Amino acid sequence: MARALELAARGEGLVEPNPMVGCVLVRDGAVVGEGWHRRFGAPHAEVEALREAGGAARGATAYVTLEPCDHLGKTPPCTAALLEAGVVRVVVACQDPNPQVNGRGLARLQAAGVAVQVGVLAGEAASLLAPFIKLMTQRRPWVIAKWAMTLDGKLATVAGDSRWISDEPSRAVVHRLRGRVDAIIVGRGTAARDDPALTARPAGPRLATRIVLDSQATLPVSSQLVRTASQAPVLVAAAADAPSERCHALRSSGVEVWQASRAAASPADRWAELLDELGRRQMTNVLVEGGSTVLGALFDAGALDELHVFLAPKLVGGATAPSPIGGAGTPCISDAVLLRDAKLEQLGADVYLHGRLH
Fold first, then answer.
1. 173 pLDDT exceeds 80?
2. CA–CA separation, 150 and 307 (whole Å)
3. Choice among 16, 34, 46, 48 that is catalytic
4. Active site residue 168
């Protein structure tokens, strides 16, 4: 199963909104076939492994990281392929939370006389599949936050200068992150101050939608984002009362303007409606590169899932220089949110810290 999980991880950024899945076929103690879901719409992991195994699959055990599907989608059901190949035992890491599957695949295999075992390396599989599981169960994308800060915890100087806090190796990691997510989100302030492109360089496996949180639709049509809207999608998330002429100007320039359906009572409400919308669009992972206001609203709403922080050995000082997370915050250290599975790496002169909050 550990090998199947390794194979599954190869599909990151290529298969979404499908899950990453790996499969290993074993017969008489020897591996006879391996496979993984390589890209959205391509054959599933089980089919890949069965093709490699050929006739050796008959009488084999299949180790699969996620319950085999039993419905016809872009590809035929994997349960049928396993049964036709003569697989006699299926070991699954975790059950598929997709309502179209959710136990049906296991039930069909058992009804056909196949021995089924569930729960082998379930924790590791759930960690790998966390974004997919969230999309299936909460109908919202996995929210990844990224920031670079100085040793004294500043995102920029008192004058707003932030280029460049992090070292080149850190920025290369950010580009790789951008290349595997469905959307990159910034606030209006970041868009105005930095005029960013928000693209991955070099291009990654996914072309992210670039989203600007801009309640009054004030993003200039001369901005780099608008000027490149034909090359990579741009979405402005505006309030219900955003001026119609500004929305029209952006739409005429190739930008999609999504407007909230109602006036939000709080930043948490605004985020809730936007994340619900992104979930409806089947976005699995979104990367937030906003400033302290955007990150603070997400933190207060409990909506952050994963952090990537780049700490540079620099000091800039300044009482009014921005820190990463604003918002209301927590009153007591005992209420602090802990980073799980935290990992530290040295990247050039920087320290790279990443981990999960959920």
1. yes
2. 16
3. 46
4. no
In the listed set 114, 132, 150, which residue is the last one of a domain according to the structure? 132
Dist CA 15 CA 207 (whole Å): 13
Say what the pTM is. 0.92
CA nearest neighbour of 322 among 187, 213, 145, 161: 161
Do residues 109 and 79 make contact, with C-beta atoms less than 8 angstroms apart? yes
Report which secondary-structure segment, H or E, holds 46: helix 45-53
CA distance 143 to 295: 11
CB 147 within 8 A of CB 109: no
Last residue of a domain, one of 104, 132, 160: 132
Q: What angle do CA 35, 39, 44 make, to 5 degrees?
A: 40
Q: Are residues 113 and 146 located together in one domain of the fold?
A: no
Domain count, the chain: 2
Of the candidates 187, 168, 261, 271, the residue with the CA atom closest to the CA atom of residue 225: 187
Query: 269 falls in which pLDDT band (50, 70, 90)?
Result: confident
